[in-house]
Amino acid sequence: GKIIYNGELKTRSDVKVDIEDRGYQFGDGIYEVIRVYNGEVFASNMHVNRLMDSAKMIQLKVPLTVAEIEALVKELIAEDKLRNGIVYMQLTRGVCSRTHAFPINEVEPVFVAYTKEMPYTGKVKPGVKGVTTDDIRWLRCNIKSLNLLGNILAKQQAVEASCDEAIQHRDGKVTEGSSSNVAIMVNGTLKTHPATNLILNGITRQVMLKLCADNDIPYVEEAFTVEEMMAADEVLYTSTSVEVTPIINIDGQSIANGEPGPITKSLQKLFSEEIE
Ligand code: PDD
């Protein structure tokens, strides 16, 4: 297959990562995961703009413009004849002799993007299980950083508990999933953590909130406690890969009657209409 390496289409096996790439050594870089449905890039502009925002927050100069990145992604999808799947892209601070501080001399950041097939069934996703865990991550979770150790350890805990996602909490308040955002429904109002430094402001989350606004589903961007979540009418999580999915059991306890709730189901339906 082909990949994008620093603005050019290349054969994957021809590209090698340098052992002193700062992304490899320090996780010094940022990334995005974008969905492709029926050959179309979903929310392309929002994702690439978020990449730019992440870059800015770590003082990384992006060697490409938003339009250039979007064009490269389209080229890559056409080359791979990708119908349904994801585009993974990342940008690292580049290659230089190992030292914690930024390189003194101009170093070209390394940009990589490649695709992966992922089927889209169009079927509404059934409810899944969650497990709660302490949010042990740093305080700049709004940056889509390559440093994912906290997220990885959380997800592994979910896997070991035979659950689909880890629901992280800090000081008793639910922040987000290991690779998703979490929302609850209480008395017809959707509640989700505000887009602060404690969470990644998910594109799926933003699309869902817009759907709420457009369809008279009240919502508030307010943090909620683990107790509030356990007693909620509905719990759901969102991400590029899971879209809108109900969470029907947390820590072995059913949420409400243990079935996907009506508002979550309508949000799933509305979200699938955004895709088509
Ligand atoms: N994860 N929060 C975290 C910590 C995430 O890693 C993600 C996405 C989200 C949801 O963001 P979005 O709706 O823009 O996908 C929230 C991606 C999919 C990943 O790491 O694979």
From TrEMBL:
Pfam families noted in UniProt: Aminotran_4
Catalytic activity, as annotated: D-alanine + 2-oxoglutarate = D-glutamate + pyruvate
SUPFAM superfamilies on file: D-aminoacid aminotransferase-like PLP-dependent enzymes
KW Transferase (keyword) present: yes
One of the record's GO molecular function terms: D-alanine-2-oxoglutarate aminotransferase activity
InterPro entries (alphabetical): Aminotrans_IV, Aminotransferase-like, BCAT-like_C, BCAT-like_N, Class-IV_PLP-Dep_Aminotrnsfr, D_amino_transT
Record NCBIfam families: D_amino_aminoT
Name under which the protein is recorded: D-alanine aminotransferase
Originating organism: Peribacillus butanolivorans
Taxonomic path: Bacteria, Bacillati, Bacillota, Bacilli, Bacillales
